[in-house]
């Protein structure tokens, strides 16, 4: 049976039951739990150092009110990185290639930042819709444009993560298919193509981590405008 390149993005199922929930919940099992003793092993120490550095860097421009989001941002960052990295393994499914999942993460968190801004400082929050010093004839047009850009933010968050991961997976599959096709006919070209595939895989590892960081970083910037 011929399979499409896009079949890898279909949610797996068992007996008609979608397994995307298992794919989302499984990464949490892989995280080491910090023990109660004073000295930890190297893996837990590395994990703790990474989370502390990331949290300090992310919350540096925020005031004290935004520090309440530290646990949420750190958990989301680790969660996205783990899912993206596991999706690069053979015969695995990447939930973050599904736009529905990414929008399910982006919309509630973006909406929470907007609600916080409207509740704590409504004047400042609404002031973002109209830049200072705008000519009077342009005021209605700019308000419409800024409102549209505000509501596009969660869509941009979800589409950016989905598009980057989907494009990377498609490129890897296309080049891997080319290697198998060229191997019996042109071995030298196939070896060079395999080297390109290896470099592309390393690039996708970096993209998996960078896109998770960008997703959380943009959320923190949206929060910074409203706290």
From TrEMBL:
Membrane topology: Multi-pass membrane protein
Species of provenance: Gnathopogon polytaenia
PROSITE patterns xref list: ATPASE_A
Entry GO terms, CC: mitochondrial inner membrane; proton-transporting ATP synthase complex
UniProt protein name: ATP synthase subunit a
Keyword set, alphabetical order: ATP synthesis, CF(0), Hydrogen ion transport, Ion transport, Membrane, Mitochondrion, Mitochondrion inner membrane, Transmembrane, Transmembrane helix, Transport
Family: Belongs to the ATPase A chain family.
CDD domains cross-referenced by the UniProt entry: ATP-synt_Fo_a_6 (cd00310)
Catalytic activity: H(+)(in) = H(+)(out)
Principal subcellular localisation of the protein: mitochondrion
Keyword Mitochondrion: yes
One Gene Ontology MF term: proton-transporting ATP synthase activity, rotational mechanism
Magnesium in keyword set: no
Protein localization: Mitochondrion inner membrane
